[in-house]
Each structure stands twice: as C-alpha cells, then as structure tokens.
Design a protein that fits this description.
Elements: H1 3-14, E1 25-39, E2 46-60, E3 65-76, E4 99-110, E5 114-121, E6 142-153, E7 156-167, H2 177-180, E8 181-195, E9 198-207, E10 217-230, E11 233-246, E12 255-267, E13 270-279, E14 312-323, E15 332-342, E16 349-361, E17 367-377, E18 384-395
Antiparallel strand pairs: 1-2, 1-18, 2-3, 3-4, 4-5, 5-6, 6-7, 7-8, 8-9, 9-10, 10-11, 11-12, 12-13, 13-14, 14-15, 15-16, 16-17, 17-18
C-alpha cells in the first residue's frame, strides 16, 4: 500500500462520526506532524510529514469488567528521513516509521478500591521518567503486561505491574529486531501517599531484559513532590533519589545514582522552574531509563536518550505561561527552556540547548503546536536543530 493510499484511508476513517463515553464506546485520535531536522553529523537535512490515526473501542460489561482494543496507523507523505525502517541512513533519524499495528488489547476489572488490567496496554508511572508510553512519537510505546492498583485508604495507592514485552516506538517495521520489541521479565512496584504536605512515592523496578542482558537493572527510589500557595504566589518542589544496580543476568557491574532537584514558582500567570538532574556514570556504565518517555527529559533534541558512560548533569531553567485576547483569552500556551549539560564523571562539557514551544486552539476542536529545539555541542554529538509543526484532535 502506498503512502498516498495510507493517508487517504486514515483521513477517511478519522472523519467518520465518533461519539461515545471515554470508558465505553469508540475513540479516535488524529495527529499530523511536520518534523524538520538539521544535524551537523549528516550532509542532508531530514524532513518528515507523517499522519497518525488511532481508532479504539471499549465495552463495559457487568460487575466492573470491561475490554478494549485500539489500532494505530502511521503514514508518511515523503521519505526524506531515516525512520529506522526505510533504510535511508544518509538522513537524520525521525523515529516515526510507517506502520499499521495493534496498539492496545486488554481485559480490565475495576472495583471500589482498585482494579487490574491484563493485555497490551499503556503504562504511565509518576512523571514517566522510568516507565512511560513515549506519547510524543507517532507510534506509541505499549506493554504486554499485567497491572494492578489498590487503594486501602484515601491518598494511599499501591501499583504493581509485571511486564512480558515492550512494543517500542520504532514499530514492527524497524530493521533492527531489537528496536521493534523486547522480551522482558520485569516487576514494577510503586507505593504513593498524597496528603497535605505533598505526594511521597517509593518505588522498586526490577527489569530483566531477556534480549539485551546489559539492560537488566534493579532501581530503588524515593520521589517527593508538592506545592504551597502564599497569597498570589505558589511554590512547588520535586525531590527524587534513586539507586540503580545490575540485575538478573547482566554481565556488567552497575552502581549508579539518580538525583533530581526542581523547585518552581508560579506568580502573575507565569511558572518558573530551575532544576538539576544527575544520572550517574563511572566511565563504563551509567544510570539508564530505557522504558521512559525520554523526549520529555534532557532537552527536546533527544541527544541523551542513552546516558553517556560518564553520566550526565543537566542544569536547566524554564518559564511558561498563557496569553491571548478575545476568544483566545488564556488559550495560547508557551514554554521556553534552557539546558546546560556536563558529564557527571570528569566534568566534560556536553553542550547547551534551547527549547521553545507555542500551543494554540484551532477550529473544529483541533489543537496546534509549534516547537523548536536548538542543541549546540561542545565536543559531544553534533549541533542539531529541530522544528515541529503539529495539528491534533481527539474524539470523543
């Protein structure tokens, strides 16, 4: 099937009427994106125009049971980029390959104090620093898993997941079989308590990667978040620490720390943040988060999807807010962020990065986004600039 035919089918399906409740009936998502990449490591620039359609259906049965499934199709208007599936390695990577696959298929039970889900599903833990769905990419990361949650009292939630397989964003069409999916035997436990003083989470993630033994790790950590209002000013904070060691059949000796310190201040419609995130490294191994929504961390240019062997210190600052007038009053959202990267071991300078974005509503329920990443290398990787133009809508 040609790219043009895929685009036509996706548009035809997306424009069909969809009306249902979120937990019972049809759902759909349509997203068009243009991504342009200029990477000094390549003689050619990449340009990708992709269209993603998700179409799902769920049905609620009696006694709290429900079932659902979701298909996902990605089509491309041209091939001037390396999708990891098209073999065009002379272009920079834009990890949005053409694909058509089953994104989710699950059976679920929900009760008064908890529930459980069995099957292919999306998993989002805390801020997705360790486990997420990589929602930024056109092809979503999902898991063949069993997950359960239990809340014995208000504010206290215990979550557990067993992962059998992860279906990665490079899709079933990726040339490298290990980029398509990984065979896992992973146990994830997360206990969180929310009260007047904030939210405290304790977690343990035992990841046994049966395809890549060196990716098998055990991670134990604590995360504390909260905010407090003082008249027109709101102060917020995130503190986190984790320790990662080798696990299962990993032949490497891993012993690395993770530290996050991020205070914030909101006043007069602006939110200011400063942060320090450290992923430790000893020159041979480093703290890794292979199941994370990595695009959300360490800059949108995606230069640190794998932590360098000497680790990474990311010192950053950001400001965000909303503006607009008339019908657009408060509906235009913007963010500007600055990152300064150095090695955890040896203090080598990795470079700096500027990120900026603008989101805005469009007619007929669509939403638009313009986004920019500008990474300037200082001996690590190469100067890279990325630009995104995106239009998206959800039904219902």
């Amino acid at each position: 099937m040609t790219s043009r035919n895929c685009l036509a089918i996706a548009l035809a399906l997306a424009l069909q009427p969809v009306a249902a409740q979120a937990d019972d009936g049809w759902s759909a998502n349509l997203r068009y994106r243009h991504e342009a990449v200029s990477d000094d490591a390549f003689a050619r620039d990449a340009s990708a125009d992709t269209l993603r359609l998700r179409l799902g259906y769920s049905h609620a049965f009696v006694n709290g049971f429900s079932a659902g499934a979701e298909l996902e199709a990605v089509a491309a208007a041209d091939g001037s980029y390396n999708s990891t599936a098209n073999g065009r390695t002379t272009y920079p990577v834009v990890a949005d390959p053409e694909s058509f696959e089953l994104n989710q298929a699950w059976l679920r039970w929900r009760g008064e104090r908890g529930g459980a889900t069995l099957g292919r599903q999306r998993l989002l833990l805390d801020n997705q620093r360790f486990v997420g769905n990589v929602g930024w990419r056109q092809n979503e990361q999902t898991y063949d898993a069993f997950s359960a949650d239990f809340s014995p009292r208000e504010g206290l939630v215990l979550r557990y997941s067993w992962l059998d397989r992860v279906h990665r964003v490079f899709s079933d069409e990726a040339i490298d079989p290990l980029a398509r999916e990984r065979d896992l035997n992973a146990h994830l436990a997360n206990l969180s308590w929310t009260g007047a003083a904030g939210t405290l989470a304790a977690y343990g993630y035992w990841l046994d990667d049966q395809d890549v033994a060196t990716a098998s790790t055990r991670t134990l950590g604590l995360r504390y978040t909260g905010q407090r209002a003082f008249d027109a000013v709101k102060l917020g904070w995130t503190l986190e620490y984790a320790k990662q060691r080798d696990h299962a059949d990993n032949p490497l000796q891993v012993s690395a720390d993770y530290v996050l310190f991020e205070p914030s201040l909101s006043a007069r419609g602006l939110t200011w943040k400063v942060g320090w995130e450290r992923l430790g490294g000893n020159g041979s191994t480093a703290f890794q988060t292979p199941l994370a929504t990595l695009h959300a961390f360490n800059g949108w240019a995606d230069k640190f999807l794998v932590t360098p062997a000497n680790g990474l210190d990311d010192r950053y600052a950001s400001v965000s807010g909303k503006f607009g007038s008339g019908r657009l009053d408060g509906k235009l959202g913007w963010t500007v962020a600055w990152h300064d990267y150095v090695a955890d071991r040896g203090d080598a300078d990795y470079g700096r990065e500027l990120n900026a974005s603008l989101s805005f509503p469009l007619p007929a329920g669509f939403a638009g986004l313009v986004k920019l990443a500008d990474y300037r290398s200082d001996g690590f990787a190469h100067d890279t600039r990325k630009l995104w133009l995106q239009i998206e809508r959800n039904w219902p």
